[in-house]
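name: query_chain
kind: protein
chains: 1
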Amino acid sequence: MMQTMRERWQQMSSRERTIVLAGGIIVGLSLLFVLVVDPFLATFDRLERQAARKEKDIKELALLSREYVAKRDRLAQVESRMPSPDGQFSLLTFLEDAATKARVRDWITGMQPQVQSLPQGYQETAVDLRLEGVQLPELLALLAAIDQAPYELHVRHLQIRPKFDNPTFLDATVRILSYAKG
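structure:
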């Protein structure tokens, strides 16, 4: 077979040899491109896209990590201000003392406690406090006493309405929350 190819090559004119040689080079280069270069370029593009996606994921993970650390620190801070489970803290007692100091105890028309167990072993105590005929400075003194409590307390809801007959007196509803490890 090789012999017959050599004979044919010898019988070709120089012009035919040039055309066959050029065709062979073109076919060889085409095969090289299709079999080697194109798959290499496709793999390179895919890896570049994956690298860009991974860099984005790393940045997002770093951001989530910072948020997690901040929230974990905030949780530790809040838990350090929670009453101990075996402690003697009572939200009702604290609110009665705060109302006495703020001189609003006479205007309290209702205190309704509610206790609810939350996930992760926490217990939420809520007290709905209703005041009628209180003036703004005394109400602000009560809210300041709640804010300066030794434990973590939250005013979840505050609704203030002026009295119809005398707008200097207010009706207020305050929902105060306290959390403890359950």
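note: Residues 14 and 20 are 10 Å apart (CA to CA).
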